[in-house]
Amino acid sequence: MAKMAAGVRPSPESFLAKAERAGRGRLKIFFGAAPGVGKTYEMLTAAQAAKREGVDVVIGVVETHGRAETMALVQGLEIVPMAEISYRGRALSEMDVDAVLKRRPQLVLVDELAHANAPGSRHPKRHQDVEELLEAGVDVFTTLNVQHLESLNDVVARITRVRVRETVPDRLFDLAEEVEVIDLTPDALRLRLAAGKVYVREQAERAVRHFFQPGNLTALRELALRRTAERVDSDMRDYMAAHGIEGPWPAGERVLVAIDERPGAAALVRAGKRLADRARAPWHCVSIETARHARLSEVERDRIADTLRLAEALGAEALTLPGGADVAEELLDFARRRNVTTIVVGKAKRTRWFALTRGSVVADLVDRAGPIAVQVMAGDGETAAPKTVEARAATSGRRSPGAYAVAALAVAVAGAAGLAIDLVIDLPNISLIFVPAVLLIALRYGAGPSLAASLLSAVAYNFLFTDPRFSLTVNDPSNVVAIVFFSLTAVVASSVAARVRAQTLSARSQARVTAELYAFSRKLAAVATEDDLLWAASHQVALMLKADVVLLTASRAGLVIGGAYPPEDTIEPGELAAATWAYEHDEPAGRGSATLPGATRLFLPLKTSRGKLGVVGVARRAAGPILTPVERRLLDALADQTAVALDRIRLGADVDEARLEAETERLRGALLTSVSHDFKTPLATIMGVITSLRSYGGLYDDATRDEMLASAQTETERLNRFVANLLDVVKLDAGGVAAMSDEIDLEDIVGAALRRAGGALGDRAVTLDFPETPLVALGDPVLIEHALVNVLENAGKHTPPSAQIAIEGRRDGDGVTLSVTDDGPGIAPEDVPHVFERFYRSAGGDRKTPGAGLGLAIARGFVEALSGTVTVETPPSGRGARFVLRLRGGRAAGEQGRA
Amino acid sequence: MASSAITVLIVDDEAPIRRFLKATLAVNDYRTLEAETAAEALRLMRHLPPELVLLDLGLPDMDGLDLIREIRARSPVPIVVLSSRGEEAAKVAALDLGADDYVTKPFGTDELMARMRAALRHRLADRGAEPVFSAGPLTVDLARHLVTLRGAEVKLSPKEFAILQELVVHAGKVLTHRHLFRAVWGQDDGDQTSLRVFVRQLRVKLEADPARPTLLLTEPGVGYRLAG
Known about the structure:
The complex is a heterodimer.
Chain A: H1 12-22, E1 27-32, H2 39-52, E2 57-61, H3 68-74, E3 78-79, E4 83-87, E5 90-94, H4 97-103, E6 107-110, H5 126-135, E7 139-145, H6 153-160, H7 170-175, E8 178-182, H8 186-194, H9 205-211, H10 214-242, E9 255-259, H11 265-278, E10 283-289, H12 298-313, E11 317-322, H13 327-337, E12 342-346, H14 352-358, H15 361-368, E13 373-377, H16 388-395, H17 401-424, H18 434-445, H19 447-465, H20 477-525, H21 530-545, E14 548-555, E15 558-565, H22 573-585, E16 589-590, E17 602-608, E18 611-619, H23 629-696, H24 702-733, E19 742-745, H25 746-761, E20 765-769, E21 776-779, H26 781-798, E22 804-812, E23 815-822, H27 855-865, E24 869-873, E25 881-889
Helix pairs in contact in A: 1-10, 2-3, 11-12, 13-15, 17-18, 17-19, 18-19, 18-20, 19-20, 20-21, 20-23, 21-23, 23-24, 24-27, 25-26, 26-27
Chain B: E1 6-11, H1 15-27, E2 30-35, H2 38-47, E3 52-56, H3 64-74, E4 79-83, H4 88-97, E5 101-104, H5 109-126, E6 132-135, E7 138-141, E8 146-149, E9 152-153, H6 158-169, E10 174-176, H7 177-185, H8 192-206, E11 216-219, E12 223-226
Parallel strand pairs in B: 1-2, 1-3, 3-4, 4-5
Antiparallel strand pairs in B: 6-7, 7-8, 8-9, 10-12, 11-12
Helix pairs in contact in B: 3-4, 6-8
């Protein structure tokens, strides 16, 4: 990052940067929030434009995923053939960097910057290939999703519950000459996903479902836009620095991130980087090496090293500083020397014991930092307790030497009080003054210190109150007995009190566990889908046990991950084997158990009385036993709860399915009845007329013959309509209503519908009321016309011939409404909720109105397929019925259409 | 409009349909030829070129649309397509490939006759007849660019007239949106909004009740037709 010089000269760094850049190729990144926004498409469009301007463009590697529109844009661009790498017997294709270098184009297109190359390729990551190309002076266009940025990896994982492993260092992103955000609103993206225009890996179905929730997409979109804005900011600063323009921002902010061996360090570093970027400040990452560090395990040492490397990759100056016992002082010293303005540390999770003996770095820092700000960041995703030993120490008694000191102090105070009283009154049982002290110590500190207190009291009593005073000798033998009995009393009292205390502590911890279990079960009870349940459960269990948790459920392909915290998508085969064993044998397996102890996780089966549901896997990053017996019991309780909740959800789903089946059966039955009746009736007429005319044709007069033929024609038309309705119903059921999204003039469609429904409406008066400017709806003209015809025919069937039909069209916010109102007898209240059901016909009389009861159901089905609604209501006049169709609105005529 | 013995080729694989079509056409002074398959149809057309083809889209040996292509490659003979219900896409495709009109099964014979007449009229117009069209109170004189409604002249914008002209020239036949775009704007495709707007304006100027048109009819999903 270019720094500002004191005057307004362009900074030397910016000159250097410019000189460095002179020989390099320029990188343009097409940046998006999610797959499917159209990055590759835009990249290709830009490439075609460049080609038209005479730039020598080739394609290094482009993923079209079979999309026709994208493939069309590839036409006419030269493609450098990919290199074939054979890996484990399979042939994989990767971009051929050498071929591109040999070809030496001006510009090369390289899709998916975060891609990991097949082993055997020159570089493990494609972005390294790209860097090589840039070094050679070739310009590069590439595409990237926000979740692949190193600094945002955590944040995105938390949002989408999927951790992406292929990452691109931020350095490359910031280095790019140009970053173009390909932005698509979450709604538009979901439409594209529904239309099948987004490529997703087969196995990632579940992740995809969650990934494409509107909330997620909005968050990702914001992330992408913000990250790019940060870049624009820094571009602006670079520009101003290069041209010697002084900026308005505060100079001299600096950030220091202090890390240690605990697991949350990586997240702390990323948080520190975000803070530094927001403050537009340089930052450092420091680990203070104290004597304690010599005793760290390999894992912990590696962790520190990795964290420092990560910090460097993200742009910090990473240092390890030697230090003494006072870590805070070392940090502050460094901070003052380097003019650090903010120190970032992780939240301390040490026990009191640790804090008492070794001090709390955070507390010291806060105390002594002076003008330097100290930010204490919550450990995000920090899951492991440092050592289970420490955890245990927290719950048992506080056997610190401090307790004994306090015991001695209490005895001294009691003794002094006794002496004071003795001066005033002569009490024979002054020994009792020590009992409160002993009891208090027992209640506060437990058995050990209280025992010490009792013995000390006995000694003090002897020393202070028995003759000869202030000496440990005893003159009177009865005093010895007194002392002895006093000691016994004190010991018994103290042990009773200590036991009471132990029970209180145990009861309290039980209560806490119960409260947590209760909170857990309440949380689970609120969850409605299986997917959400498994995620919530893993999250809760991980939090409660402070471990990494993964929940596997049974599917046709074996055990699959249902939920995990921290988010996981895949599981190693070794782990899966242990999990499968646990599932099949209904016994624990994995680390710490008798079976497959080499696995990193311990797997416990999840089951209820109805059967097996899955497996829960627990891992701790620290070495040693995964779970203490107490935790193990807690885990069992949590697992049982989860199993029960899972059972509940599955049973609910079963009930829904059973209900659906019953409903389907009912419809099928109704269909058969309806078909047989409604086919046979018109056919009977037609058959009758034809056979009659054939046999007796000559005997009829012309008028009669004409009448009979007319009725046969009417019946044929009726049959035709019925068949049409049936076909529509079948089409709706099969989901085959692929609706178009055309712009439709509603008045136009109403006119067409009136023509078609003319016969059914007969001589009824029809009035139309539409606004001056054309009312435009978005949808399929044929479907809307059919729906309208059905509604009109329905009106014709259920109103007397003198009825009036009023059709009105209006704008309604984003959409349009079309209402058909008649002033006939209206709909009976008991029929209203069933009006749109299939095969429902009002029980008015002996089914006097012909028809299968399908018309309105079809109308609703069609309109709903167009994302609209159909409802029925009573008109304001109180008479008749009104059917309201709500449709999506299109652009009004007169607005600019797309070119 | 029946001239002396116009020959109609009936292409349909259903015998009952061929029978009643033959009878009906005969009564209306048409001569008929029958073909059961596409191959037979093409063969007949080579030897005895008909003046109109009635074509069922659902033939056993070739997709109806392909047959239209084949016929159009050799001849401009009017084609009226017999389609099943709900095949809007196929109808539009057929029309764009060169068919003149369609009737949807089951159809009434009067509708069929009207469509056939409309399809043939266009050909007759080519032979120099009928520069003046009239339907009810509306008269359109193509040569003099004059439109009168109940004797009074109606002013139309150039685009409006162009659309009306096209519809009049093909009176009775359905014209797809694409056909109108090509004819009026010279492009293959375009913004349906503008077309809609012009048709609406025409209706306002020419129809008794613009909301319930009797002359400028909409065929939903397909295009427009001038009742003729």
